[in-house]
């Protein structure tokens, strides 16, 4: 999968990380994304919204607005929150179908997979999978 197959916002993020040649720069970028993330409602920090298999607490919600998915998320770890923010920024405004067709391989293009610890890389995949699942659920609840 090349970055041309990615939603435009995600392709832009991948390019941005590609330009950051050292792991330290990539981490700084993740922290920057984390700080940009909008406030997550405490009322949404429920077991249904918790991402399974993450070392840190991660929460994701998805709603449908005009057939486009709008995600919200949060984490108690700055770096993980950065990963959440990166995915939200990259996937918001895509359709559930577009999101479900994505594969998480783009993480390799960012170079982040090299910088992440195995548990964080695993967390990234779990967050991504949860977002795909929530995108589908938002579509199902909208069509009912």
Helical percentage: 55-70%
Number of strands: 2
Q: How far apart, in Å, are the first and last alpha carbons?
A: 33 Å
Reading the helices and strands in chain order gives HHEEHHHHH
**What count of helical segments does DSSP give?**
7
Structural class: mainly alpha
Gross morphology is: globular
- How many structural domains does the protein architecture include? 1
Spans of at least 5 consecutive residues whose pLDDT stays below 50 are none
Which class in CATH terms? Alpha Beta
Strand content is 5-15%
Q: At CATH's second level, what is the architecture?
A: Alpha-Beta Complex
CATH third-tier fold name: Sufe protein. Chain: A
Mean pLDDT: 92
Q: Strand order, biggest sheet?
A: 1-2
Q: Which keywords apply here?
A:
144 residues, mainly alpha, Sufe protein. Chain: A, globular
Describe the structure.
- The protein has 144 residues and is mainly alpha-helical.
- The protein has one domain: Sufe protein. Chain: A, CATH 3.90.1010.10.
- Helix content is 56%, strand content 11%.
- The protein has 7 helices and 2 strands, in the order ααββααααα.
- It has a two-stranded antiparallel sheet.
- Strand 1 and strand 2 form a beta hairpin.
- The radius of gyration is 14 Å and the shape is globular.
- The N and C termini lie far apart (33 Å).
